[in-house]
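hey so i finally got around to running the thing on that chain from the lab meeting. sorry it took forever, my laptop kept dying and i had to restart like 3 times. anyway pasting the input first so we r on the same page abt which one it is
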Amino acid sequence: MTAFKQLVNYAIWLALLWIASQPTYAAGRYALLIGNAAYDQPLVNPVNDARAMASQLQQLGFDVTLQTDLKRDALLQQVGQFAQRAQGAELALVFYAGHGAQGGDSNYLVPVDLPTRTLSRQSLQRGGYDVNQLLGELQRNHVQAGVLMIDACRVVYQRGDTPDLSLQGLKAASAPKGYVLAYSTSPGGRASDYWSRESKNSPYTYAMLNELAKPAQPLETLLKNVGNRVATLTQHTQIPWYSSSLTGNALQLNPGKTLASSTSTAKITTGGSRGSAVWDSVKLYDWVIEIRQQKLDPYLDRKALKNRANAGDVVAQTGWAMLNQPAAERKKWLERAAAQQFPLAQMYLGEWYLDNERNAAGRQQAEVWLNKAAEFYPPARATLADLYLQQGNRSGADIALKELGGSAMGYINQLKNKSGPPAITR
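ok and heres what got predicted. didnt touch it at all, straight out
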């Protein structure tokens, strides 16, 4: 063998050795689905959500990994293993359902071994899983495109209500290049754990499953449709949000298969004597507390609240109106929420007319709005009774107070029924 041939063979051997030393990149699409429910304050739907999403994505050709009720160490391990398996993949999707909250400048997923009853900023930073850490795992493994969907956080009725007022849901975060971050609610907002007695999924997961069943939708179109559907299902109390740094509009989670949605068949409940949506009185009382707490919260992100209000979140619109706004500004925001038939905004708008337009026309408007509110929020009847007394209508006041008493007993019975799994939250 000539020296030249030896040199060529040696060069080929070095090239083959270099190729063999390179990491083997995965082809195709990978998905990790996590549903955390077994907290000290147990949740109902996250495991259902993760399983339903896993089934849907598997039908779409994803290599699926399903994990439920992960403690912190297991959560870190599963994310790390998934990122390595999806190294260099065309697409890696991570879906998380469970508790989540903001601590400092970061968003955290909450493992099931982190106590939620005493959750604080410090315990969250020590025992939670930073979303940035998850993104870092995918980036280090050179995933070509990444999608992170977070359906969080949940406490009893809400995904985001914690004892620490500084922890009010997830904050805004920009997606790194090549990634999409999709959240079930707007920054600083809370996300519902249920929307119908018949549905076994959160409104966000329900909407996502329905949209995934439609072929050839660009991802951003899909996310916009999900947002619109969730807003409808939750009567504009929850507005999903996403951030995308993808280039172009080519990424599709369902490139071309028409699927039957894996969600249960559930009707959107509407009705009432005025054709309005049916509001859960227990939720309304929770929202009253939330709105009142906002005035006392030294950590309140006013910008995030205003952004939620601008996006159409009726709870945020009402809360923003009640934050010591000038009379005209307060009225404007209350009218926007009241037009969406939100009972709390209707009640506060009625009170606005009593406080700011002290004439016959103002009292007439107050009566209209208070009657609308009283249909679903009994305390509005107390203000209505006071209005009737001012007008000399003693019989009207007596009727309002009698109805208030009956409604209050009904609410107390609802709370008593919550000792076991309530039908409305399964």
